[in-house]
Amino acid sequence: MKLDYVTIFPDYFAPLTLSLVGKAAQTGLLEVQVHDLRQWAHDVHRSVDDTPFGGGAGMVMKPEPWGEALDAVLGGETPACLVIPTPSGALFSQRQAEELAAYDRLVFACGRYEGIDARVPEYARTLTEVRELSLGDYVLNGGEVAALAMTEAIVRLLPGVIGNPESLTEESHSESLRHRLEYPVYTKPASWRGRDVPEILLSGHHAKIAEWRREQAEALTRERRPELLARAED
Ligand code: 6GU
């Protein structure tokens, strides 16, 4: 998979050289390229933002540098999906991660300030598929951290990135838990600072353990994320 990031803060993407994503890039499973948006800004100040038409606080990212950036980065061979992280996007979910993991090429357009001129995603849709996606109902200063979070969720689903693919199947939000949160997990020692691991997990009784885990997942979800249970009925 080829991953491109367009940003005015290329240094934000240094973590892509670390851990699982970094390893996948080293072994050639991933190709990562970070582009400085300012290379497509041509005035003396290399400005990428301007005041909003209609008034209001803050600055808006100008369309011209983004237009040139998208022409340059999206141009070429493989069909890509352009991901635009924005708090006004549709919710990024495990389902979205699974869908995006199927592409050979993803381009992340990271905005700052009050956002990107609305004609940019409109234009981009004439070039390729575009998804405007949000991490959740809170506001970050820009798309960079969101792009990193989405990248990690997507890349760990690629074959060969995670050592033991079975660890993908039982975790929170995966299909096998049917939209429930993951059950609590324990390791040795069986007793620690006066707290014991639940007896059932030491029993070796696999069916009963599976049943206990289902109950725990259900109770935890009811307590923390009750809205997921309504969704899990289907
Ligand atoms: Cl994707 N971008 C920004 N700027 N803020 C966010 C977000 C994205 N998701 C949640 N908050």
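^ 6-chloroguanine complex. The pocket of 6-chloroguanine is lined by residues 85-87, 89, 133-136, 138-140, 142-143, 146 (CB under 6 Å). The chain has seven helices and nine strands.
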